[in-house]
Write a structure and sequence with these properties.
about 425 residues; alpha+beta; Neuraminidase; 4-stranded antiparallel sheet; 20 strands; elongated
């Protein structure tokens, strides 16, 4: 019996070796076998500093009336040459753009027409239609001089905004914040500007959501900052999506307009969860003004503190943002953009804050006086001894304040 068992075992072993050496067909199993893999090495959690890093410097803007989103500047879906022809014709009040000799497909013609009308850069251009081998431009004014003057007014106003919102050494983030604050402080939400789009926001300083979003997009395009338009599912609201160093954020200039006199960044740098909560939408569509784009994931919590604060102002030199009423606590806190950490600066109740040239200006509620805190030395100085201040804000490189007994706002500039 034992000898029989050993012979059987040897025969099985020989058959097994022969099977390994010869080609064979794999028989599918009824139940999938579990896949075994080595336990992965734990990935170290990056520190806030590693997550944030330093932002890319912005290029000094050279104003262009033809500024376009990055994804439309090259590619098969859009003709930049035709776009320039149409914009030049609209600025001159011309009623026709010949397509003779223009190397543009029918799809590109449609894209240029849709983009120009959607952005609303011209004050009077109301429609563009394809007629035989030309584009016909329709205006709401028959006064060519008026149309031409409006185009000049737009270029002048837009260039002025860029000059105010950029200084040498600014990062893309700082430019994006400066543009956000500018529009929030200077552009009034107005139903009268429903059809004005970009022109109304830039020149008339009046806009609705479409005007705010297109104005912000146009100004970001001047810096080459990646951005897109975001629309609510029912198209009732539009805001922006910006991408800084490969990370995307929601920005709603409309909701931030004139909030705390434009001294708030509450609707800047929102992730998807924050945008859904703040704006009230659970979904949205991202577009470049011509076609829908893939919706990126916005998951960064880098600016989460801004949504928990009241007034906010950026220290452009110190790469930090100062906030009051953070998490509804009295006083001023600091968000360090390099580490992501929030720290308390002081706990006194304030009625306004602004940062300029290394000084934190703040209106102390306890006595109603205006103070400065040197952000390098921590030295505190009271301004205008004996004069109480009722309001405080910064616009560009000027601090504005309202003092008791004065009808006009005072100014402090470097």
């Amino acid at each position: 019996m034992r000898r029989t068992r050993w012979l059987a075992l040897g025969l099985c072993l020989l058959l097994g070796l022969a099977g390994c050496a010869a080609p064979h067909t794999q028989i599918p199993l009824q139940t999938p076998m579990p896949t075994l893999s080595p336990t992965p090495e734990p990935t170290p959690t990056p520190t806030p500093a590693q997550q944030l890093g330093n932002d890319t410097l912005a290029q000094a803007p050279s104003y262009s009336t033809y500024a376009l989103p990055l994804d439309l500047r090259s590619g098969e879906s859009f003709s930049t040459a035709l776009y320039k022809l149409v914009m030049d014709a609209a600025a001159a009040g011309e009623t026709e753009v010949s397509l003779e000799g223009v190397n543009a497909t029918a799809a590109q013609v449609d894209s240029v027409r849709a983009f120009v009308l959607a952005r609303g850069q011209s004050a009077f251009l109301s429609d563009i239609s394809l007629e035989e081998n030309a584009l016909a431009l329709v205006y709401t004014s028959e006064d060519t001089t008026e149309i031409q003057q409006a185009a000049q007014d737009f270029d002048k106003a837009a260039q002025s905004i860029l000059e105010e919102c950029y200084q040498t050494g600014y990062t893309q983030l700082q430019c994006a914040m400066a543009l956000y604050q500018y529009l929030g402080q200077h552009v009034e939400y107005s139903y009268e500007s429903m059809d004005d789009g970009l022109y109304g926001a830039i020149v008339d300083k009046k806009a609705m959501a479409n005007g705010y979003a297109n104005a912000y997009a146009f100004l970001l395009d001047q810096f080459g900052i990646e951005n897109a338009l975001v629309s609510a599912p029912d198209k009732s609201h539009v805001w922006n999506l910006i991408t800084i160093d490969g990370v995307s954020y929601h920005v709603d200039v409309t909701f931030g307009a004139n909030l705390l006199k434009g001294q708030s960044l509450k609707f800047f740098g929102m992730n998807d969860a924050a945008a859904a909560t703040a704006l009230g939408y659970t979904g949205w569509t991202v577009s470049n003004g011509v076609a829908d784009l893939e919706t990126p994931l916005c998951s960064s919590t880098r600016f989460e503190a801004l949504q928990k604060a009241g007034r906010s102002d950026m220290d452009y030199a110190g790469n930090a943002i100062y906030m009051d009423a953070y998490e509804e606590a009295p006083g001023v806190s600091k968000l360090d953009l390099l580490t992501g950490e929030v720290s308390v600066v002081f706990s006194e109740q304030t009625g306004g804050i602004a940062v300029l040239d290394g000084l934190l200006y703040y209106l102390r509620n306890e006595d109603g006086y205006l103070y400065t805190l040197n952000l390098t030395t921590n030295e505190t100085v009271q301004l205008f001894e004996g004069t109480k201040v009722t309001a405080l804000e910064r616009r560009g490189n000027v601090i504005y304040y309202s003092a008791e007994g004065q009808s006009e706002m005072g100014q402090i500039s470097p």
